[in-house]
Specification:
Blueprint lengths: L1 H4 L13 H11 L5 H8 L13 H11 L5 H24 L6 H10 L4
């Protein structure tokens, strides 16, 4: 993966540009595209929740269902596939040229990837 990211500019290469200006330029080039969440909110519907959003008994119930999947032996069996998928999405990130909605374009497809 290091080879994929080797062409990235080192941090601080644009030292003469104020951080606020860089942020505004980035937002203009990469508008936020949380359309699904915006639509749900506009319709007055509750936003989907993940384990991160759940607490107490609800969290414990959902976690119990998935806990075996994350034990060391189970994860070790999946590691070659995980590495391959990670390389694929790292390349996808490079192909976007530094401008994407990370959640929508990388994180969600990566975490919901099915073989």
């Amino acid at each position: 993966m290091d080879a994929l990211l080797g062409g990235a500019e080192p941090r601080g290469s644009d030292r003469g540009v104020a951080p606020q200006r860089r942020l505004l330029e980035h937002r203009a080039l990469c508008p936020r595209t949380d359309a699904q969440y915006d639509l749900l909110a506009a319709l007055g519907l509750e936003l989907p929740k993940t384990l991160v959003h759940l607490h107490g008994e609800a969290h414990a119930k959902y976690r119990a269902v998935t806990s075996d999947w994350f034990k060391p032996a189970a994860v070790k069996k999946l590691q070659p596939a995980v590495d391959s998928i990670a390389e694929e999405y790292a390349q996808r990130l490079v192909d976007f040229g530094g401008c994407c909605d990370f959640a929508q374009d990388i994180a969600v497809p990566f975490t919901t990837h099915s073989s």
